[in-house]
Amino acid sequence: MAVSLTWLYVFTREFRQKYPIPGFFLYQSLKLPFIFLILVIAYSYYLYVYVLCYTVLWTTWNRNWGAFLILAQLIIYLFVFHLLLFMFLWCLVQVMRTPTARVPKEYYVDEETGRKLDELKLNKEQTSKVEFPEWLEKRRAILEAFAASRGLNFAEIEEDTNCLRYCYVCRLIKPDRCHHCRACGYCVLRYDHHCPYIYKCISYSNYKFFLLLLFYGAALAIWTISTEIQGLLYHFMHGALYLGIQLVVGLIFQLLGGIFVIDVIRFHVSLTNTNDTTCENDKVPYLRFEGASYDMGTAQNWKYLLGRRLWILPVSTRYKDDNGLHFKINIPNQVVTV
Ligand SMILES: [Zn+2]
Ligand SMILES: [Zn+2]
């Protein structure tokens, strides 16, 4: 998470626009981490089903038909492993196939407004409030007038200018919690981050699936590692070194993957507790109302994210009034939706 690959995404997108064929292959090469993930899952499946369940448990049961405990163990191992693997893959498919949440067209400014805003575009040093108050006033007025003409409401504004947040690339006023993803090249609703491992934006549309993917991934890693150790001991004790070494290699990958996923979960649990996104964790959103935040309290934050029923499944469980454009805001002594 800490390593930013944004420059690589931007370079790839621009390179692909200029040189479509080599650009296509460069773009595909960014999916290598995902292919590696699939290979580790396939290898883990072989280890679990063949090296642990077949060569250890099934063989032991075959030699000792009275050992019903071993048969029960075999059934439980296979059942839990396949259940967790199925849930993990289901979440992965949902994260990847859900379209990234984009901004509706009413937030895009018309040509005339865009041209006026372009004329007011100044570099960073020039945007000082003190030096250019008229410029700021003009910009603020154009944006507010456009928002009013479309009936658009916003709680978030730019901290340094107090203007509505405008994207010069997409030429739109950013809805609350929306940010421009440089990897995708467009603005994304409730933008969290662009995930390098699956090369996909994690946003309003797929954040719940992403969070469940982490949980099932961690559960799968913990279950697999803790049960495979039995197979490892068995093979080394019975002199089956080749199978034992295969398990050691698999366990190393699973352990590294498990530690990584648990670390990412820890971070996202802390974000969800306070209703923050990865992006907002880096730059705190600035709201029009004093002392306001999106934090509705831990229980409400989790409810908002996971929904009421079927929260455990990677299916949409959104509340009716949740559209990714307007969010409940906690202002001291009152709660409003802008
Ligand atoms: Zn944008
Ligand atoms: Zn993105």
UniProtKB/TrEMBL annotation:
InterPro entries xref list: Palmitoyltrfase_DHHC, PFA4/ZDH16/20/ERF2-like
Pfam families according to UniProt: DHHC
Primary residence: membrane
Domain Palmitoyltransferase DHHC: from-to ranges: 164-281
Keyword Lipoprotein belongs to the record: no
Topological type in the membrane: Multi-pass membrane protein
EC number: 2.3.1.225
Transmembrane segments: 34-59, 65-93, 209-227, 239-262
Localization in the cell: Membrane
GO molecular function: protein-cysteine S-palmitoyltransferase activity
Record key words, sorted: Acyltransferase, Membrane, Transferase, Transmembrane, Transmembrane helix
Catalysed reactions listed for this entry: L-cysteinyl-[protein] + hexadecanoyl-CoA = S-hexadecanoyl-L-cysteinyl-[protein] + CoA
GO CC annotations on file: endoplasmic reticulum; Golgi apparatus; membrane
Enzyme class: transferase
GO BP terms: protein targeting to membrane
Annotated domain remarks: The DHHC domain is required for palmitoyltransferase activity.
PANTHER family: PALMITOYLTRANSFERASE (PTHR22883:SF452), ZINC FINGER DHHC DOMAIN CONTAINING PROTEIN (PTHR22883)
Family: Belongs to the DHHC palmitoyltransferase family.
The name this protein goes by in its record: Palmitoyltransferase
Source organism of this protein record: Acrobeloides nanus
Organism phylogeny: Eukaryota, Metazoa, Ecdysozoa, Nematoda, Chromadorea
